[in-house]
Amino acid sequence: xxxxxxxxxxxxxxxxxxxxxxxxxxxxxxxxxxxxxxxxxxxxxxxxxxxxxxxxxxxxxxxxxxxxxxxxxxxxxxxxxxxxxxxxxxxxxxxxxxxxxxxxxxxxxxxxxxxxxxxxxxxxxxxxxxxxxxxxxxxxxxxxxxxxxxxxxxxxxxxxxxxxxxxxxxxxxxxxxxxxxxxxxxxxxxxxxxxxxxxxxxxxxxxxxxxxxxxxxxxxxxxxxxxxxxxx
Length: 232
Description:
By secondary structure, the protein is an alpha/beta fold. It has one domain (2-104, 158-226): 3-Layer(aba) Sandwich (Rossmann fold), CATH 3.40.50. Helices cover 34% and strands 18% of the residues. It has ten helices and ten strands. The strands form three sheets. It has a six-stranded parallel sheet, sandwiched between helices.
């Protein structure tokens, strides 16, 4: 059996996968959706440890696919680096990725970092970044935007500033970088730079909300690859 560990991005929660989980279950897979959204000044390393805790619950005889959306691309790569023998494949969904020492702010344009810092400065304690509007994630349909706006959460500023700690074990794990079109940031180039095959998918940054069926098919297809080759 395949287990998908689905890790949500910044300002989101496990609910981000609500439209994907039933489809993966219908395909015969199991799912885990670790929660990185607990209130507190948690950083990237704490989030990676939460993912590691989820990985440790998966039986050794199951194929494990680790999926990180957006910011969680950095999180899942650090978690996989700590448990390389457990993870069979990594999928970045419009995910940020880089080498050891990379952070969101080191990978993103200066304008992004400036906007995030300015938003944090306007918050109550200066340590959390208020959620941007749904349109920032490509969600413009009125009903979907209202659904998303009601759920988005503040994000600790530390998650954008903490650099990843990678020993290099993650580089032995095959991966797929799914990048949405039209692109907001060069997620295809980031994925290719860490050695992953790239796959273009039409849809917004939060494509799991707008096109769950095609995305579920992409994830199931990715689970059939190991060491860059399809299993038969």
